[in-house]
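Weekly modeling sync, notes
Attendees: S.R. (lead), two postdocs, one rotation student

Agenda item 3: backlog of single-chain predictions. S.R. asked that every request posted to the team notebook include the full sequence so nobody has to chase files. The rotation student volunteered to paste the first one in as an example of the format we agreed on. Action items at the bottom.

Example entry:
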Amino acid sequence: MKNHMFKFKFSLPIVLLLLSVLFINVSWKTNNHDKNLPEMGFTDTMANTKISKAIAFDNYINDFYTESGLQGSGLSLPLFHKSLVGYLNLKRQKILNNQKNILSIIDFTKKSTEKRLWIIDVKKQKLLLNSLVAHGQGSGENLATQFSNTAESHQSSLGFYVTQSIYFGKHGKSLVLDGLDKGINSLAKSRSIVIHGAEYVSEEFIKQHGRLGRSHGCPAVPEVLKTKIIDLIKDKTMLYINGNSTHPSKHLNLNIAHNNLQSLFKTI
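Predicted structure, as returned to the notebook:
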């Protein structure tokens, strides 16, 4: 009996010591957890890091959308989200001009009578211009429903583009577009798909015909705005053309966009 009591008394301090060490360790981890988080509040585990980056990205886009003038302009939040994902992918590939930070979007799910071109300054988080824009004759009447990458189809092409050089042709000042999605718009240059002005892109034409005039596949803009539009988006800025059909694009990688959100702040 005495030996048993002796052993109990001897082990009790050890148990208390172990409990004390455990308490201190848990307390230290709890109090120092936030100090170990990387910038923007991302956690250090891989799973939580992905979740945090996705949340940060969505919060950034929501704030951008509401504070830039895009909300209420007719541009949908999902399309803006998709376009910015592509923008960050192309930034990562160093395809775009870091000095301009211009993002342009055309939404051909809207009728030609609606303003469906948006030009956005990503640096200033500001909508610069919202305009009418025409689709191709082969794509439809008031609404574009068919799209092609084929020569002489006179249809518009969807997907991501980077703007190239200015030239003067039959439509005057025009801007070359280079299609970046293979099989979707990759023949844009050989098809002479460019930004140019046209008299049939106007409110007056809509009043007379109930729709805009149509091009041979080019995203034609109002004649009175062509110089302003071309000068804003020239020199390797991104244009995304959206339509009612889905298309695969390697430039819509969400992980790349989430991982490069911080680099966006550095470049702007």
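Discussion: group reviewed the output briefly. Residues 1-10, 24-38 have pLDDT under 50 and may be disordered.
Action items: rotation student to repeat for the remaining queue; S.R. to check formatting next week.
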